[in-house]
Structures are given as structure tokens and as C-alpha cells.
């Protein structure tokens, strides 16, 4: 089955620790995204990548880092600089638009998220 | 940047009734408007989307309408069923904006028996 796999489903972080959330897709999508979801709020964009070895900051990138070494994978690291990391993290991917800017205006497909908590 | 407002935050309907969720956006350059359904502990699932060159789109019990002049779009669910209970999010994407989505704050829909 094609889809997006996020792991782990639950993750706990100690003070001062970096943690990495995994996101893998087998949809052959070029673009991938990371969102943060807090209770009662919509999704906010952390980072996105339209192609391998390239990524851009979203609206709330501070305290996070990403890499995009493979088309299938877009891991997110929550660093110790992120002072309020407790949230539900969602990864998404999309295909590039036809005749449009790369990755433009195509449906995004989501994984089932990782819930990160502070110990 | 784009700002998307969504109302109501909670909606309770009787089974078989219709449900309507409304969103407004701020940037007239937005041209793609998806709607997502999120069940507890799951990721959002795309249920319908509409582009700015279309005023209405329907898929079985679900329809979306778009008013570009007023910059608002709405989700309509007819003949609601208990399995429609979930959180629904609207979103908007700006033309040429790298497919970045700006989301509304969500509507908790409860369909009561």
C-alpha cells in the first residue's frame, strides 16, 4: 500500500535533549512538509521541501531542523532550543503541479502523526 | 501572509440533518482550497478540494462552494451520519506559493443519534 509512515507514534523528550521524528513516503512525491498541531488549533507549517537536498523554513521553524537526503525521507529534529515542543507533529507529501511551480497547489497527503511529550 | 478563519469551532447536528462549515481567507492570490477530516489520533484526510476557477464541487454527500469576490468558501455535508463526527479543517494555498497550505482552526462536528 502506498502511503506516509511516521514513527514513532509516541515520543518523550527530556530537558536539553534533541529528538528526531521519522517520516517516510512511498508515493513517489517530490514535495514533503512538516506541521505542528496544538490542541484547538489548526496546523502550522514548520519546514517544507520541494525536492531532494533542498528545504525552506515555514512559519514556525525556530527550534527545529530537517534534512532531505532521499526523496522518500524527510526527518524532523526537535532541538533543545524548542522550548515548548509538546505537540502533535504531522508529515505530509504532495506531487508537483502540472505546468505550475514545482509542488504548487496539489493535494497534500498526511501520515498519522507523532505525539511528542516532555518528561 | 495568508490568514484563514473558520466557523463555527463546534457544531452539533442530528443524524440526517445537514452541516455547514464556513471559512474566509485574506489573500486574493489564493487559488486552491482543500478540506480535511481528522479523526482522533489520526492524520488529516483530504475529503474534497476546489480550485478558484470553479464555484462549486460535489462528491456524493459532500459539497464545497467558493465565492472569490467575498473570499469565502464553505463545506456542506448532507444526510449526516455518526461516522461523519470528526474535526474538519479548511485550508488555502496561494498561487505560486510552493503549495504551502494555511489552515483554519478546525470545526468539531458531532452527529447525534
Describe the protein in words.
The complex is a heterodimer of chains A (119) and B (113). By secondary structure, chain A is mostly beta strands. Chain A contains no helices and eleven strands. Chain A is 0% helix and 47% strand. In chain A, the strands form two sheets. In chain A, strands 2, 4, 5, 6, 9, 10 and 11 form a seven-stranded mixed beta sheet that branches. Chain A has a four-stranded antiparallel beta sheet with strand order 1-3-8-7, with no helix packed on it. Chain A starts with a strand and ends with a strand. The relative contact order of chain A is 0.32. With 113 residues, chain B is an all-beta fold. Chain B is built from no helices and eleven strands. Chain B has strands spanning 4-7, 10-14, 19-25, 30-38, 45-51, 56-59, 62-67, 72-77, 86-94, 101-103, 107-112. The mean pLDDT of chain B is 94. Chains A and B meet through strand 5, strand 9 and strand 10 of A and strand 4, strand 5 and strand 9 of B.
The number of distinct helices of chain A, counting runs of at least 4 residues, comes to 0
Continuous helix count of chain B = 0
Largest contact between chains = A-B, 33 and 30 residues
Poorly predicted runs of chain B are none
Q: Estimate percent helicity of chain A.
A: under 10%
Write the layout of secondary structure elements.
The complex is a heterodimer of chains A (119) and B (113).
Chain A: E1 4-7, E2 10-13, E3 19-25, E4 31-37, E5 43-51, E6 54-57, E7 64-66, E8 76-78, E9 87-94, E10 109-110, E11 114-118
Parallel strand pairs in A: 2-11
Antiparallel strand pairs in A: 1-3, 3-8, 4-5, 4-9, 5-6, 7-8, 9-10, 9-11
Chain B: E1 4-7, E2 10-14, E3 19-25, E4 30-38, E5 45-51, E6 56-59, E7 62-67, E8 72-77, E9 86-94, E10 101-103, E11 107-112
Parallel strand pairs in B: 2-11
Antiparallel strand pairs in B: 1-3, 3-8, 4-5, 4-9, 6-7, 7-8, 9-10, 9-11
Amino acid at each position: 500500500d502506498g502511503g506516509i509512515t511516521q514513527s514513532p507514534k509516541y515520543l518523550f523528550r527530556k530537558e536539553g535533549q534533541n529528538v528526531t521524528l521519522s517520516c517516510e513516503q512511498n508515493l513517489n512525491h517530490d514535495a514533503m512538509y512538516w506541521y505542528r498541531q496544538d490542541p484547538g488549533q489548526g496546523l502550522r507549517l514548520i519546514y517544507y521541501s520541494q525536492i531532494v537536498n533542498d528545504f525552506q523554513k515555514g512559519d514556525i521553524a525556530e527550534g527545529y531542523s530537517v534534512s532531505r537526503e532521499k526523496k522518500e525521507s524527510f526527518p524532523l529534529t526537535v532541538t533543545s532550543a524548542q522550548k515548548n515542543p509538546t505537540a502533535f507533529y504531522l508529515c505530509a507529501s504532495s506531487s508537483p503541479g502540472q505546468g505550475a511551480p514545482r509542488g504548487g497547489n496539489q493535494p497534500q497527503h498526511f501520515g498519522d502523526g507523532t505525539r511528542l511529550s516532555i518528561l | 501572509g495568508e490568514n484563514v478563519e473558520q466557523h463555527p469551532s463546534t457544531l452539533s447536528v442530528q443524524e440526517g440533518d445537514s452541516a455547514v462549515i464556513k471559512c474566509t481567507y485574506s489573500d486574493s492570490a489564493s487559488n486552491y482550497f482543500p478540506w480535511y477530516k481528522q479523526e482522533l489520533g489520526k492524520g488529516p484526510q483530504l475529503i474534497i478540494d476546489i480550485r478558484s476557477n470553479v464555484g462549486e464541487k460535489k462528491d456524493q454527500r459532500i459539497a464545497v462552494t467558493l465565492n472569490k469576490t467575498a473570499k469565502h468558501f464553505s463545506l456542506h455535508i448532507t444526510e449526516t451520519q455518526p461516522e461523519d463526527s470528526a474535526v474538519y479543517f479548511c485550508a488555502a494555498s496561494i498561487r505560486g506559493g510552493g503549495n504551502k497550505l494555511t489552515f483554519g482552526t478546525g470545526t468539531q462536528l458531532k452527529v447525534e443519534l
